[in-house]
Amino acid sequence: MSRTVPRSETVRPSHQDTTSWSADPYADALRNGHGPLFLRRTDGWLLPLDVERWCAGADAADLSALHRCEGPVLDIGCGPGRLVAALAARGHRALGIDVSEAAVARTQRLGGSALHRSVFEPLPGEGRWGTVLLVDGNIGIGGDPRRLLHRTASVLAPGGLLIAETAPQDIDERVRVQLDDGRAAGARPAPAAPFPWARLGTPALLRHARPLGWLTADQWESDGRPFVALRRGRSVLTAGQGADGTNGAPVISSQFPRNTSGDSSLTGS
């Protein structure tokens, strides 16, 4: 099933959405290479963020996803860049995007290509990416999974692959959160305003994806981390597409990563 998505769904996110991950606790954690760092819900519940793993090299679970990549890869919410760096080290064309300047800087120091950009802004090579990654909970970006799935479809080439890491629980949660480093309120800067976030288990992601025309390509678990690979079906109307099927999303080809020999599926470790 497909539907036309209003252009209002593709507008640039609010200043609040794009600056929250640039707040001091996140930037400090990336610079230091460790937490503590949490997403704090408005009811006080804390979700620990695995900064140490993000700042380390790609592990076996990461590689289980990277081995499935096809063509050029866009890592949405690349964080400190371990996945982009791992792909680049294997000669694979890859680009990370992140709304955190600290994350982009760290990715570039590791030898990866990265842009300070939100997924909801115009991106290089729209409609030409072979694989999009939404790892480390990034399926929650924007707090609206259907909107993110539509936007992802507009970035991918027809038949392209979305690889998403899901929550280990069967959960479908839309919340507002703040970044929190665990310090007492009087010992830390005033927090940024809450921003929308989502958490999805595999069943919830599939419930959202299938009616939009996504095809399930694979499901697996590695080191307790569940993943789903979705294939962009030909019938998906993307977030930049009108009812006539024309693609309204701009392509910024000057920023597209240079061609390398790594445009086939990634193999080996």
TrEMBL record:
Q: Tell me the keywords, alphabetical order.
A: Methyltransferase, Transferase
UniProt GO MF annotations: methyltransferase activity
**Which SUPFAM superfamilies does the record match to this protein?**
S-adenosyl-L-methionine-dependent methyltransferases (SSF53335)
- The residue ranges flagged as biased composition, category Polar residues, are 252-269
| Keyword Transferase belongs to the record | yes
The record's Pfam families line, in alphabetical order, gives: Methyltransf_23 (PF13489)
Q: Looking at the record's lineage, which domain of life comes first?
A: Bacteria
For this chain's UniProt record, which GO biological process terms are given?
methylation
Ranges for region Disordered: 1-23, 238-269
Under what name is this protein listed? Class I SAM-dependent methyltransferase
Species for this entry? Streptomyces brevispora
| Lineage of the species this protein comes from | Bacteria, Bacillati, Actinomycetota, Actinomycetes, Kitasatosporales
